[in-house]
From TrEMBL:
Coiled-coil features, chain-numbered ranges: none
InterPro entries linked: Cell_wall/Cho-bd_repeat (IPR018337)
Domain of life: Bacteria
Record-linked PROSITE patterns: CW
Key words of the record: Repeat, Signal
Lineage: Bacteria, Bacillati, Actinomycetota, Actinomycetes, Actinomycetales
Signal sequence, start to end: 1-26
Protein name in the entry: Cell wall-binding protein
Membrane keyword on record: no
SUPFAM superfamilies to which the protein is assigned, alphabetical: Cell wall binding repeat
Amino acid sequence: MRKSYRALAGTIAGVLALAISSPAVASESVNKPMIASVGTPLILDNKISDGWHHTEGHWYYFVGNYPVSGWLEDAGKRYYLGDEGVMITGWMQNKLGEYFYFDASGAMTTNKWVQTNGRWFYLGDSGTMLVNQWLSAGGHWYYFGSDGAMATGWAKDTTGTYYYFNVSGAMQSNQWMASGGQWYYLNSSGAMLANNWLQSNGKWYYFDATGAMLANRWLSAGGQWYYFGASGAMASGWATDTTGTYYYFNASGAMLSNQWIASGGQWYYLGSSGAMMRNAWVGNYYVGPDGAMMRNAWIGNYYVGADGAWIASGSGSATQSIVNTIGGQCPAYAPIKGNQSSMIYHMPEQRFYNSTNAEVCFANQSDAIAHGYRKAKV
């Protein structure tokens, strides 16, 4: 489940070009155009004093009767004057591609937030706009992408690690995030977990390469198979997958296979795929429709004893088959009636067969004899 990460819209040039060409939008935070228009060169007939002068709707700084251009530091603040000496306000990009912001007074902004076109930017110590950088402020972490805009929602840094930022831009951490129908987890550093385990409230969860929590899915890890149910929690003990097939997982969550499992007073067998077997022979044992090993029962023409093992008819074994009665009568496959008190058995053709209330039944005389019974005389 891939995250619905929204690409950070636009480039720095695209965002700020709009601001530069539209003074009304650019002034939403500072109430002044971002960049002053440059007029014709200023020609002065009389010498004027060095310093700031306002003329023809613009501010200039004069030294020796000429307007200064480029960077200027005055009274502890920095300013930038264009090629014709016009003081800049709003955004300015230098030849290195770095962005700066100058407030309504023309002073360069440092260590402050600036909102432009509904997006937030931050100017650092040197006055440059943060790009692909983190900022710790007010007890929260913020991230600024390649266009310098503060991240909200899902975003990744230059290492390719995903983070989530709330509507105010604050990075989230140590919490679950539901997004696009999937669940994700942000660790203590805020990084989204991917290809990793998480223990939460005593249960184990796993997140795939996209960061999505596994739910109703298998995981092969370290030579073992694990299963995660609808809640995403790792299975242990008995569990079914989406096909309704039963599997058994040990305390560490690893699926067991090719072995018997004792559970609830019954025995079950897990095949090579780990699936619980049903209606099948496992060596000399048979597991029924519910997967439990059958005892003292016929399976077709074969009989399994009290221990579940198949008993070969006529073997003379002390564990030779005894079949339970049905309402005092014997089934067709084991018609010989036995009385436990007298240790006598009756054949169907004998005189007292029909009037005998069977307590046990046998398939053949050798089985009855093997259990110490003797044949009735008539």
